[in-house]
Amino acid sequence: MKFTILTLFPEMFAPLDCSILKRGRDEGLLVFDLVNFRDFALSRHKNVDDTPYGGGGGMVLKPEPLYAALAALPPPAGARRVALLTPQGALFSQSRAAALAAYDELVLICGHYEGFDERIRALADEEISIGDYVLTGGEPAALVVIDAVARLTPGVLGQEDAARTDSHAGGFLEHPHYTRPPLFAGQRVPEVLLSGDHAAIERWRRKESLRRTFLRRPDLVPEAVWREGDYAILEELAAEEETVRLCRPLWAGAAPPARRRKGGDRHG
Ligand code: 9D3
């Protein structure tokens, strides 16, 4: 997958040269093209912004340099998506990352400090925000989007990591993890994890996964996928955690399947 980044601060993309993204690039699975759109400024002084029509403070990014930078890109080798990073965009999510991973090229347009001339929006297929907090520019947001999309590109994650993501999922938070030593700083590894009883370990992990999700992120519960056996675990948790008890309406979907009568469904 190719990522083309239009930015005034290409140095802010040093993280692309690290870790998994670096490996993905070394293996030819990822391509990063950093374009400084100041190079496409028309004026002698290479201005990319100007004062807003109608007055008021601040500066606004001019449309011409970004239009020229986009027009100068090599023709796309496949399906290309152009995204503008802006606090006014649609909230980024794992499902948006998965949708973007289906393209061959993602063009990311980053502003810095200031607003875009409204006509720049016409260049973009979509506008993306990464959350309700104020950044200094679109660059850190672009890094977040690139990271989330690149790891979904086939082959970028090692076989093991990819398999682990497949086995996990479901929309609940992960269970707690432990490694050696069994006792550290007065904190013991739960006995069940040392037992070798794989069914008991699986059940403990599921229970702690549900507990964490109800206590920390109850907003995830309505979208999460129930498993067989969850109802009994939830009844146990309800006895241990007031939050889970109070959230009982959220786990209606986990109710045990109604006992099927012999002979299948009868009507009337
Ligand atoms: C808060 C009002 N603004 C200041 C005059 C507008 C503003 C424009 C641009 C504020 C910050 C920025 C820089 N941020 C981004 O470009 C940005 C962003 C963000 O700040 N938060 C979450 N997602 C994103 S995507 C791009």
Structural write-up:
With 268 residues, the chain is α/β, with parallel strands linked by helices. The protein folds into 2 domains: 2-150, SPOUT methyltransferase, trefoil knot domain (Alpha/beta knot), CATH 3.40.1280; 183-259, Trp Operon Repressor, Chain A (Orthogonal Bundle). Helices cover 30% and strands 16% of the residues. The chain has 8 helices and 10 strands. The chain has helices at 19-26, 63-71, 94-100, 139-150, 159-167, 198-216, 230-240, 242-246; strands at 2-7, 31-36, 49-50, 60-61, 80-91, 105-110, 115-116, 126-129, 183-184, 187-188. The chain has a 5-stranded parallel beta sheet. It has a 3-stranded mixed beta sheet with strand order 3-4-7, with no helix packed on it. The protein has a two-stranded antiparallel sheet with strand order 9-10. The mean pLDDT is 94.
Supply the CATH architecture of the largest domain.
3-Layer(aba) Sandwich
| Structural domain tally | 2
The CA-CA distance between the termini, in Å, is 57 Å
User: Which class best fits the helix and strand makeup?
Assistant: alpha/beta
CATH topology of the largest domain: Alpha/beta knot
